[in-house]
Amino acid sequence: MVKYELIKECKRTKARLGRLHTNHGIIETPVFMPVGTQATVKAMTPEELKEIGAEIILSNTYHLYLRPGADLIREAGGLHGFMNWDRPILTDSGGFQVFSLGPLRKISEDGVTFKSHLDGSTHFMSPETATEVQMALGSDIIMAFDECAPYPSTWEYTEAALERTTRWAARCKEAHTRDDQALFGIVQGGVFRDLRERSARELVEIGFPGYSIGGLSVGEPKPLMYEVLDYTVPCLPVDKPRYLMGVGSPDCLIEGVMRGIDMFDCVLPTRIARNGTVMTSRGRVVIKNAQNTRDFRPLDEECECYTCRNYSRAYIRHLFKAEEILGLRLTTIHNLHFLLNLMKKVRQAVMEDTLPEFRNEFFAKYGYE
User: Fold this and answer.
1) Helical segments of the chain, H only
2) What is the pLDDT of residues 9-35, one digit of tens each?
3) 265 is catalytic
4) 140, 146, 262, 265: which one is catalytic?
């Protein structure tokens, strides 16, 4: 069973501390979840993930359904056995990836027919299929199959997507039979307050052990995303975890926590790391820039990750220029450590009721306005 335990509510913001209990361990919330799309967090071993403090990682149903296939993963003992990760795993339903295929997919009430981005083969994904695949994967937390309306979309289109998402959520719940997994519903509704509130209300009526907020961080301005969170989060139960999907920049993590979000995920830290950009306490650094050629300081003098304890900016720049794999491994370790350590500091600030001051100090130092 997966159970959420509310530990503390901030006296000055909507932030809260909690614990998410799963069969594979306890997750301290609010939490950032590194993304391991294809049963691996790119460039990282499970041991390295544990060393930097990762308590839960995320994998992708769509990609694993296509390759290597759910049956093979089930035969390997589920995702935990397949990828040698004995801590909690969350899988998304694949809905966002399927709908991102654009002209390669066709939506019906039954589900979505789509062409594989790998070989062009035709597949059909229904709410029942998405749920069955995730049960085979054996992740601790799974997502309902939803329709994510792009930004911008009309009110009419967004309403239709919301209504289908609600019907599909009920079908996912009906199809879900594993007691050791938690199935989360996904709130949709775009940037329309009446639709967001309706979506949340309808999902709460169906009843889920946790609720995700989808359809944000898809191109809308950040102030608009915060506005949507301001009126959506209060519609969700206090005693259930709240998960904001696809968000991973430091400012959005802090602002999300202040609005009552418990869980986040994003490919951002690993993706920009592979391109040579790192997050530091004083803002982003592009390691390939010429100014780092003879800079023998660590990436971040306030960081205690493996990379910063052992390597200089000059060396890491050399690795990128020489196209050596170690370079992107070192930047990935650093970026993930930076965000996980940030969330640790955020949790401490919530505990001490000093989150507003922490936010202001962090933003000023990082270079946010």
Assistant:
1) 46-51, 61-66, 70-75, 78-83, 95-99, 127-137, 155-175, 193-206, 222-232, 250-258, 268-274, 306-310, 313-321, 325-351, 355-366
2) 999 999 999 999 999 999 999 999 999
3) yes
4) 265
